[in-house]
Design goal:
It is built from five helices and 13 strands. It is α/β, with parallel strands linked by helices. It folds into two domains: 30 residues; 238 residues, Purple Acid Phosphatase, chain A, domain 2 (4-Layer Sandwich), CATH 3.60.21. It is globular.
């Protein structure tokens, strides 16, 4: 009888300790030392790259998840660090926020990268109307713009919750323009057809797994982010770059999967080289 009471008392104490640990983790806001965030510098080899776009740079932020789990000042500092890289173009590929109350913070937090273009992520979709009215980052929802002479930047609606229309996004692209596609979910690249003539898709969503285990890789991956998890890949009809992003979802931790700030450089591939990625 005494043994049973001792076991019950031990289990109660263990349950209490675990509950306190979970409460601490859930209430703690994620913040990574900005000076330690890796700046991933990736050369993207493209065929038929016009001379004036050689070494054109694209800065990428994604998966900010401003909200209860991510310190807003961390996002502001990361945006400033990317701006200091002075890329020719900056894009944000979705999941700006993790709650409606954070949308109003974006103008201030993303002031260092004002002039960037973006697309909605799945976490943004319930606040899509507020996001469209937010001037910090104009959204490309099934439309495109000539972001630089001879460079068409297109964005599609949220691939899981919305109605992406790649044909509409490419409508109006100048003949011969280099076509860059923004889509939150990287696996959307498998829906790109040869006729769309997309050179590169830029995405986020997967967080690179967020929690990775030694030898086995990501613990969990979300739908739409299971094929092109992190880095540069060759999809059937375009290249796709997936950023690990800045923030977190569900739990304020990253394990063996640091956040990233990205600077992509467009470089001409050699004659006869199809421009396939080096990293995968």
């Amino acid at each position: 009888m005494n043994l049973r009471r001792t076991i019950r008392r031990y289990l109660r104490r263990l349950a209490y300790a675990v509950s306190r640990l979970i409460t601490f983790v859930v209430r703690r806001r994620y913040r990574f030392a900005v000076e330690r965030i890796p700046v991933e510098r990736v050369a993207v080899r493209l065929t038929s790259l016009p001379p004036h776009l050689k070494n054109f740079t694209i800065g990428v932020l994604t998966d900010l998840h401003v909200g209860a789990l991510v310190d807003p000042e961390y996002i502001r500092a990361a945006a400033a660090r990317l701006a200091a890289e002075r890329p020719d173009l900056i894009v944000v590929t979705g999941d700006f926020v993790s709650g409606a109350g954070s949308v109003g913070l974006l103008s201030d937090l993303l002031a260092p990268v004002r002039g960037a273009w973006g697309v909605l992520g799945n976490w943004d979709y319930d606040h899509a109307d507020e996001m469209r009215a937010e001037p910090a980052v104009p959204l490309l929802v099934n439309r495109g713009v000539e972001a630089a002479p001879g460079l068409w930047l297109a964005g599609v609606d949220e691939a899981i919750l919305g109605s992406p229309d790649l044909d509409a996004a490419m409508a109006g692209a100048p003949e011969g323009a280099v076509r860059i596609l923004l889509c939150h979910e990287p696996d959307f690249a498998d829906r790109v057809e040869a006729r769309h003539r997309v050179a590169l898709q830029i995405s986020g969503h997967s967080h690179g797994g967020q929690v990775r285990l030694p030898f086995t890789g990501p613990l969990l991956l979300p739908p739409g982010g299971r094929r092109y998890v992190a880095g540069l890949y060759q999809a059937p009809h375009c290249q796709v770059y997936t950023s690990r992003g800045l923030g977190v979802a569900h739990l304020p931790v990253r394990i063996l999967c640091p956040p990233e700030i990205t600077v992509l450089s467009l470089v001409a591939s050699h004659e006869g080289d199809r421009g396939s990625p080096e990293t995968h």
